[in-house]
Amino acid sequence: MKYRRLGRSGLKVSEVSLGSWLTYGKSVEDNVAEKTIHKAYELGINFFDSANVYERGEGEKVMAKALKEYARESYVITTKAFWPMGDGPNDRGLSRKHVYEQVHNSLKRMNLDYVDIFYCHRYDPETPVDETLRVIDDLIRQGKVLYAGVSEWTAAQIEEAVGVADKYLLDRIVVNQPQYSMLNRYIEKEVLPVSSKYGISQVVWSPLAQGMLTGKYKDGKIPENSRAANDTINTSVKNFLTEENLKKVQQLGKLAEELNTTLPALAIAWILRQPNVASALVGASRPEQIEANVKGSELELKTEVIEKIEGILA
User: Fold this and answer.
1) Which CATH architecture has domain 3-209+262-300?
2) CB count, 10 Å around CB of 239?
3) Which of 3, 24, 41, 54 is catalytic?
């Protein structure tokens, strides 16, 4: 496993990281989830991602419990807040009240003194950015959060956050967590250039395009026993299931065979060609899946291979 610095910080994270969205605490039995997390750790993954909203905290509990047997300084663990955690008017968003309460609730669920990274899970148009960054800065000064991050913020919103932090001498964000894959490249136009300018890394989710880049949907159908059958992500998968994308996946699969590797490894290696990407965040419901994904960190893509991929994706 290789490691990269997270933005302009000194923190180093594994090029492949493991998340708990729609898996741990829900569709994957706890003992299988723990085995998968342990396998990830054994393979050199030191970066584990969760959020308060993942099964209302159950994802956090499962992940933290599995990591408890390892030295706390040996891994990086995250959480997030924004999405509703209740029916009340203050049970959502990025207000000082909600962020403060949710960080403490997450720490209690995970039985931790601190989280390494706290993400603003989305941009909150109803809360001033300085209010949100101020409470995160307070939590950093209290030692309950080490680094600040955002998820799916636009280039303009990221630039706003940097400006506000500098104006009020608050801790800057060091990471953004957007969706990015061979089949979804929207961040390349604006988000990557702005992030590079300010020393903010990307930790990208859905690097395998909701499973499309595993090749398991090559017939255009969603298997009943797959995670994609879950209503929450079924729509996202269907958006990828176009005739054009299926042709691309078929050609990419042939290229992977020519390179004596797998399509998932090729897809992750392609993402890691971007110097602004610190880590590819994958989901895994079985230990063998994480073993397959880790191979993307070992694969170096030559210029001519990248050009072939671009030709397929064009």
Assistant:
1) Alpha-Beta Barrel (3.20)
2) 14
3) 54
